[in-house]
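Blinded run. Sample ID left blank on purpose so nobody reads anything into the name before looking at the predicted structure. Input follows.
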Amino acid sequence: MLRSVGLYGRGLKAPSMYELGTWILKELLNTERSIEVIKRTWNETGVTIMSDGWSDIKSRSLINILVNNPYGTVFLRSVEALDEVKNATFIFNLLDGGGEQLVVQVVTDNASAYKAAGQMLMEKRTHLYWTPYTAHCIDLILEDLGDLPQHKSALSRAKKITKFIYNHSWVCHILFDTVELDRGEGKKSEGKEIRKIILNDKFWATVTYAILSTRPLVQVLRLVDAEKKPAMGFIYNAMDKAKELIAYNLGGEEASSREIWDIIDARWEVQLHHHLHAAAYYLNPQFQYSEKKSSNPEVKLDLYHCMERLIPEQADRELADLQLVLFRNK
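Blinded prediction complete.
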């Protein structure tokens, strides 16, 4: 809200008491009605519980609890967590309340307390899954990649350049025409250092390497961080394609990309890749009916693992199995 006010600038007129009590109040009621419409779909689809931990301006630890299904996301409540944010039992009790049959997934970040709470939930409720936020995991992968010497070198020098540019407004104007540092500041020690970095071919080689080895992951991050469409059915394929593109970008030789792949797999295979991702890939018509559909046997195995967990009755699983045949042959 404050950001929007700031963008408006001076002259914004605050709503009057009359407006707050009439059309603005009606807008609020319309919002509540739209939320009720979403809630009525929960029995049909099941829901995902999402927790979002953050700190306010007074450094208080808060956890927002949200409910999501294909029809939208609804804010449920906010809890002041104090020091208990690292307590797995506290988080477990927070996420365990209500909706016994409706909840099919719980999503949190990948901190150790949340991961432990997620495992406790899966042990108690045998029909749901805990999964970590994909965006958080990809952030961690990118941080790990940033620790590689070649990436760290490119980043540290690139930061010096951007800092110099933003600290000297005249450079911003020059950049529209030329990158030549021909002012007084360019002759000082800082300017000389920046000039030396820019004219160094090795620096640009490390920048190119950093871009080629991380851009595919940033594209996956954009996919999962967007709100245009549910990303679950696209993550499995997106991660596979990202790894393939990184290998291609780095020359196609396994030795050149093995270091990057190992870092990705350390997070993806161990922390992020769940049965749900492969199952969602299988159930996504965009991939199911594609000539390039994955033939990896883990896809079907993960799908059946999900069916066993989410569909407790044998008769219902058999019916679902028949529906899979119809889906495949559609």
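Unblinding after everyone has recorded impressions. Residues 92 and 120 are 7 Å apart (CA to CA).
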